[in-house]
Amino acid sequence: MAFTVGSGLAPDAYALMIAVVADLVCGDPVYRAHPVRLIGRTLQWIEARLRATSADGYAGGVLLFLALATIWVGGVSLIVVAASSLRTIAGWLLHTFLMYSLLALGDLLHHGWRIEHALRRGDLDGARNAVSHLVGRDTAPMDAAACRRAAVESLSENLTDGFTSPLFWYVVAGLPGLVLFKVVSTMDSMVGYRTDRYLRFGWCGARLDDVMNVVPARLTWLLLAAVAAALPRCSGRKALRIGWRQHSVLPGPNSGWSEAATAGAVQRRLVGPIWMNGVLVASAWIGDPRDPPMTTDSEYDSASLLITVAGICAAALAWSVLVLSAD
């Protein structure tokens, strides 16, 4: 397929390729007008006004989604179309940069390595501090092995949320689909809690996030198993088996697929004791009961390589679908 400048909002194979490479090499771009940050601020502004009118139940959560989707999917689409109408290359560059800004695997991998590098320097406090930016659990009780497990758990879970799901919705519905997924993902992360304040108001965002991740989560499970079969010290068969049998051990219908598959693939148990506000809230492990817990730096290296290669393969598959569908 010859290179052609894409136009407007439709998925573009070469925009995808450039965005993925930029994400893996550079990580998430840091700038004041980052769309995810702006979506979050918009959410807070709308939430405050909905609550001021007592629209803080199920209906308020639905209104929040409709408002965010209208503002961000509609607004981004109008801006990109307007840029394309002025000059096609301008629209394509904006399209590509927005896509790069909405992928998150590279930044997660870089953060995981910050944890691992701190541990290899013997800086356990630094590793705990880095872990605290990824998970909501208590980090003070964590030893080096627990820090490594937390890093791998976050990487494997966010392989779906931060990379394969955005790619999936981009291929299915172009830039608007990608932005819509990020709107829903941001709602889930900010209001999708089972607390008195958000149990009803956050229900819409949480359930939409579940729905939008259903297919990508299971595709990620299969992809991790396929990649594991080709990597040393990994097991594709265990990734399939543990993913299938233990995906429901973790809360939510989707996150367990990639986490359990990763545990099976690297043949090490993950999760273990979790403390919140000084209270032990969970002690379940995922992985083959006959496998030891993940503890060493070489085991972290295997897991990080698995997730990196799986992400690259997901991007290659998405690119191939777009190229073949254009021919």
Concise summary:
This protein is mainly α and 327 residues long. It has 11 helices and 4 strands, in the order H-H-H-H-H-H-H-H-H-H-E-E-E-E-H. A hairpin with a 2-residue loop joins strand 2 and strand 3 (279-282).
β content, as a range? Answer: under 5%
Note the quaternary state here.
Answer: single chain
Gyration radius (Cα, Å) is 20 Å
Question: What's the tally of helices?
Answer: 11
Shape assignment: globular
Q: Which blocks of ≥5 consecutive residues have pLDDT under 50?
A: 1-6
Strands side by side in the biggest sheet: 1-4
E-strand count: 4
Classify the secondary structure makeup into a structural class.
mainly alpha
Q: Roughly how much helix do the residues carry, as a percent range?
A: over 70%
Note the run of SSEs as H and E. Answer: HHHHHHHHHHEEEEH
**Average predicted local confidence, pLDDT:** 94
Note the gap between the termini.
7 Å
Biggest sheet details: 2 strands, antiparallel
Supply database-style keywords.
mainly alpha, 3% strand, two-stranded antiparallel sheet, 11 helices, 327 residues
Q: How would you describe this protein?
A:
This protein is mainly α. It contains 11 helices and 4 strands; from the N terminus they run H-H-H-H-H-H-H-H-H-H-E-E-E-E-H. The chain has a two-stranded antiparallel sheet with strand order 1-4. Strands 2-3 form a two-stranded antiparallel ribbon. A hairpin with a 2-residue loop joins strand 2 (274-276) and strand 3 (279-282). It is globular. The chain starts with 12 loop residues before the first helix and ends with a helix. The model is unreliable at 1-6 (pLDDT under 50).
